[in-house]
Specification:
With 677 residues, the chain is α+β, with helices and mostly antiparallel strands. The protein is built from 14 helices and 24 strands. The protein folds into 4 domains: 55 residues, no CATH class; 216 residues, no CATH class; 107 residues, no CATH class; 233 residues, 4-Layer Sandwich (Phosphatase 2c, domain 1), CATH 3.60.40.10.
């Protein structure tokens, strides 16, 4: 079996949205239930109150069904639980259900048999009483003396002209005319159509009677002994007769027979008492199979007064007790009625069990089929991955453990596919970056032209593998130099290629002997022709005549140039448009250099260096760092870089850092130029 794992986790944004919707829905439902409760229980009885109670009941039912569904869904999420549940449905669940159905069916079938035996015995007694009454009437009509027939078990009453002339004094003194209405008696028998209603004698005990009348003479034959005992002896059952009374009356036995509620009261007379003839002798141990453990109830018709036919109680209830052997003895008897009931019961139970087993089999089949299909798909996809096909995916339509496993597999293959593609792409990119990095390094001057009159110190520190800054120092002749610093927009390989294009064009234009503004103008036109909206270049070009100490400075949107002279800093700020931007306006000025002047060109990466709080270094700190004795180009560079490092506290740079410092010494000795790349 699979081990249970946590449910699939949705992305945080989806989870938050789902949580908000769920909370809103639950709040709305809770508010609705609260309002319904107020309307249902805080208001007077009205149709509004009834409607609210009905809706509350509906909410309760829906809530219970929802909880049951969620519990079942969570339980069946595990594959192991699904298999166990399917096996339970097939092999275990039907057993107690079958036992319960057999017990219930046995009880109902036994009750049917008990009622059948009771009715047959009562009918046979009724037939005998009716036959005895008819026989006594014939004898009474043929004799003229006062001597009539007598039976120990039957009490007779003989009537002439409506008056009793002989017989038992327990029977009415006047002829009960209602006995002549046989149709009424049969209608009131309440399911026992062949049995006349029980009648009450003078001592209020119930019994059955037969009657016959002809002309002016009539005869009543009433059973003389306990009627319950006689029916019990005939049927083999323990029979107790009780009368139905007011259900609200205290001291009564409350019972339910069918859809009717009764309060049972024993009869006052001794004729309805339960017999003991079928029971064992005192002290005899009763085997369990012989104990009267079966109990059933039968409804008879109304109890009428024998004298006037008045209804004393609507029903007479017969409680029946029997031994299981009595039922089994009649179960396979030759009675067609009994056999029909047996077969109907067996067919019903068999059909119900077959239906239950069929449903259990179908459910188990679909569970196993779905599981097998999901496992087969997973196996095929796994074989594809093993063969090197990382594009294999499994369609996910389940929301259980199998579905979670399928989603995990798809995520795994997707990650593997991305990883393989990323590795291949990374290898290609690293090769391209190495080529571009080598190309960019080749663009930065490795050997700075040496001169007795000029000492250079440089810094080139890109923030990425390929930066956008560029500087160059070109020698026109022994006394003339060209210093260029530029910042190409962007980073990466495209920027490196643009930088290479810029240097190639710049070298050609400088060698042609064009002035600085014309050089910048042509470079701007070339950049504009590239048809790239976000491609522009800031640049600053200085033509320096070392012998004359003259410097022509031209600026195209680049940060200012700084001149350090006798411990003071001068910021040379020239307006101008970047190359490739709208317009070709460039700032230009002439500067007369003095001995020990230090000229500093830099990029915006030094100016915009950020401290941990996000504050840039700024132009003011640039001037403060450069302020002081010049000393030399290297000293000025190190002083500025130390100030920037103290400001950033070692925070990684977000932009390229480029710096060119020149120390002018027209009559000095040669000094080794320094640079950092």
């Amino acid at each position: 079996m699979f081990e249970e794992s946590p449910p699939y986790l949705a992305p945080p944004e989806m989870s938050r949205t789902s949580g908000i919707l769920r909370f809103s829905l639950l709040s709305l439902v809770a508010l609705t239930i609260a309002l319904l409760a107020v309307v249902a229980f805080a208001t007077e009885s009205s149709w509004w109150s009834l409607l609210a109670k009905g809706l509350l009941l509906g909410f309760a039912v829906l809530g219970i069904l929802w909880l049951f569904w969620k519990a079942l869904q969570r339980f069946l999420w595990s594959v192991g639980r699904r298999l166990a549940f399917s096996y339970f449905l097939i092999g275990i669940f039907p057993i107690p259900l079958l036992a319960l159905l057999l017990i219930l069916n046995s009880f109902l079938l036994s009750g049917y048999f008990l009622g059948h035996l009771y009715r047959d015995s009562a009918v046979s007694l009724q037939v005998e009483l009716q036959h005895a009454a008819e026989t006594a009437l014939v004898e009474f009509s043929s004799r003229h003396d006062s001597q009539f027939g007598h039976d120990e078990e039957i009490e007779f009453a003989y009537y002439s002209k409506g008056r009793r002339v002989a017989g038992s004094k327990l029977l009415p003194s006047s002829w009960p005319a209602w006995l002549d209405d046989r149709e009424m008696q049969l209608e009131e028998s309440k399911g026992s159509e062949a049995i006349q209603p029980f009648v009450a004698l003078a001592d209020e005990s119930p019994t059955l009677v037969g009657s016959a009348s002809s002309g002016r003479r009539a005869v009543i034959a009433a059973f003389a002994g306990p009627i319950a005992e006689e029916i019990g002896l005939r049927s083999g059952l323990d029979v107790t007769l009780m009368r139905a009374d007011d259900p609200d009356k205290e001291g009564t036995i409350q019972v339910s027979l069918g859809s009717r509620e009764f309060a049972l009261v024993p009869f006052k007379g001794g004729r309805a008492e339960s017999p003991t003839a079928t029971g064992p002798d005192d002290g005899e141990k009763i085997p369990w199979w012989q104990r009267p453990v079966l109990l059933w109830g039968e409804l008879a018709g109304p109890l009428r007064s024998l004298e006037d036919g008045a209804i004393l109680t609507d029903y007479v209830v017969a409680t029946l007790r029997s031994k299981p052997s009595t039922v089994f003895g009649h179960l396979f008897s030759g009675s067609a009625e009994v056999n029909t009931a047996v077969w109907a019961s067996l067919i019903s139970v068999t059909g119900l069990l077959a239906t239950i087993y069929g449903l259990a089999f179908l459910m188990a089949f679909f569970l196993i089929f779905a599981l097998s299909r999901a496992v087969n798909r997973l196996s095929q996809a796994t074989n594809s991955v093993r063969a090197g096909d990382f594009s294999a995916r499994i369609p996910v339509k389940r929301r259980d453990q199998i579905g979670e496993l399928q989603r995990s597999f798809n995520e795994m293959t997707m990650n593997l596919e991305d990883s393989v593609a990323a590795v291949a792409q990374k290898e290609v990119l690293e090769k391209e970056l190495q080529i571009a990095r080598d190309l960019q390094q080749s663009l930065i001057p490795a050997n700075i032209p040496s001169s007795e009159a000029a000492e250079f110190s440089t810094l080139f520190e890109p923030s990425a593998a390929i930066g956008g800054d560029y500087f160059d120092i070109l020698r026109l002749d022994e006394q003339r130099l060209v210093v260029v610093i530029a910042d190409v927009s962007g980073h990466g390989l495209p920027t490196g290629l643009r930088m290479a294009m810029l240097k190639a064009a710049l070298v050609i234009l400088v060698e042609e002997g064009l002035p600085a503004d014309e050089i910048l103008r042509r470079l701007s036109s070339m950049i504009s022709s590239q048809d790239e909206r976000h491609f522009f270049v800031t640049a600053s070009i200085a033509f320096i005549d070392l012998s004359q100490g003259e410097m022509e400075l031209t600026n195209a949107g680049h940060p200012p140039t700084y001149l350090v002279r006798e411990g003071e800093v001068r910021e040379i700020l020239l307006t101008g448009n970047p190359l490739g931007a709208l317009g070709e306006l460039f700032g230009q000025t002439q500067i007369r250099l003095q001995a020990d002047d230090v000229v500093v060109w830099l990029s915006d990466g030094l100016i915009e260096a950020l401290d941990p709080s996000g504050e840039p270094f700024g132009y003011e700190r640039i001037r403060q760092a450069l302020n002081g004795p010049a000393g030399g180009a290297s000293e000025v560079r190190e002083r500025l870089l130390a100030a920037v490092e103290a400001h950033t506290h070692g925070r990684p740079a977000s932009d390229d850092k480029t710096l060119v410092a020149m120390h002018y010494r027209p009559s000095g000795r040669a000094v080794a130029n320094s640079s950092t790349r």
